[in-house]
Amino acid sequence: MRRCFILLLVLCLILFLVPVKADTVVDLTSLQQRLLSLGYEIGTADGILGTKTKSALMLAQTLLSDAGFEVSSTGQPDAVTAALIMKEENSALLHTLLKGSWGSRVRGAQEKLINLNLLRDSADGKYGANTETAVLAFEKMLSDQVPDIQRDGRLSTEEYALLMSDLSVYGIEAPIYFDDDHPEKLKETYLYAKHACLINAVTGDVLFEKAADEQAEPASTTKIVTLITALSLCNPEETIVIPDEATDVPEDSTLVPVEPGEMMTMQDLLYGMMIRSGNDAANAVAVLCSGSTEAFAEQMNRKAAELGMTNSHFVNAHGYSAEGHYTTVRDLVTAARYGLTQELFRKIVTCLKYTLPATNKRDSLVLTLKWEIFDPESEYYIPNAAGVKSGYTSSAGFCYVGAYQQDGTTLIAAVMGGKRRSMAWTDLKRLFAYGMAVTE
Question: Which residue has the higher pLDDT, 335 or 19?
Answer without folding.
Answer: 335
